[in-house]
Amino acid sequence: DQQVKQNSPSLSVQEGRISILNCDYTNSMFDYFLWYKKYPAEGPTFLISISSIKDKNEDGRFTVFLNKSAKHLSLHIVPSQPGDSAVYFCAASSDNYGQNFVFGPGTRLSVLP
Amino acid sequence: SAVISQKPSRDICQRGTSLTIQCQVDSQVTMMFWYRQQPGQSLTLIATANQGSEATYESGFVIDKFPISRPNLTFSTLTVSNMSPEDSSIYLCSVGGLATQGWNEQFFGPGTRLTVL
Fold first, then answer.
1. pLDDT tens, residue by residue, B72-89
2. Which of A2, A34, B50, B103 has its C-alpha lying 20 to 30 A from A97's C-alpha?
3. Which of A3, A4, A46 to mutate against chain B (most B CBs within 10 Å)?
4. DSSP run (H or E) holding A72
């Protein structure tokens, strides 16, 4: 039973446009969410996080939105760049100390020049 | 963030043998974790490596199969024992609780790609 779902295994976007990556979760105890980016042959890189007391967190071109009632979060990348092409993982935790993250299956983003 | 290195970066092993993967961090960290990413799947937490005590394993993972050492705050090893082809995976070390970061972020090493024949 997947507690964190990313229903789109892949997404293609034109350079300069917005990329929207979605993530749904089932465990209502989750209160901290992270997005990671992973290039081939590298470890995941932390991108942005949001806690349940917020509904939006922005860092440069990256914005994460959280809808607690829908148990849904999304990552927006604006404008998308070819270097953003990677696999994006959503992760969720109910643990304040950074343990026990549950990862989604990932979405492969391709930004086309 | 910390610089995390893993050795080896990749290996091809025979069934029934064991492989020890090393994880080195360039600063002292409280939390170290070991993950597995099987082909086409997401990251799964194997265990939390505790300094000075036995590792804490997640459901489905046992110490006999994945013994872990954590002799100090900058180093940990994961051994994949009595390997079978099903153990072919990427094994990732991660750290959390860095002094300059919030507790909640984890940072990952580059991973070790293991293929078992």
1. 989 999 999 999 999 999
2. A2
3. A46
4. strand A72-77
pLDDT at A98 over 70: no
* Tokens read off for A8: 């789109």
Using CB atoms, which residue from B43, B44, B107 is nearest to A46?
B107
- The shortest C-alpha distance from B81 to chain A (Å) reads 23
* Band of residue A69 on the pLDDT scale cut at 50, 70, 90: very high
- Kindly give the parts of chain B with pLDDT less than 50: 99
> What six digits make up the tokens of B66?
């994945």
Number of DSSP helices (H) and strands (E) in chain B, helices first: 0, 11
> Which tokens in the block code for residue B94?
């991660």
Chain A's closest residue to B48, CA to CA, is A99
The amino acid occupying position A93 is S
Beta strands B112-116 and B10-13: pairing type?
Answer: parallel
A64's tokens: 């994460």
Nearest-by-Cβ selection for B96 from A51, A98, A104: A98
Rounded Cα gap, residues A96 and B42, in angstroms: 22
Task: Write the single-letter amino acid at A44.
Answer: P
Nearest to A89 by CA among B11, B89, B48, B35: B35
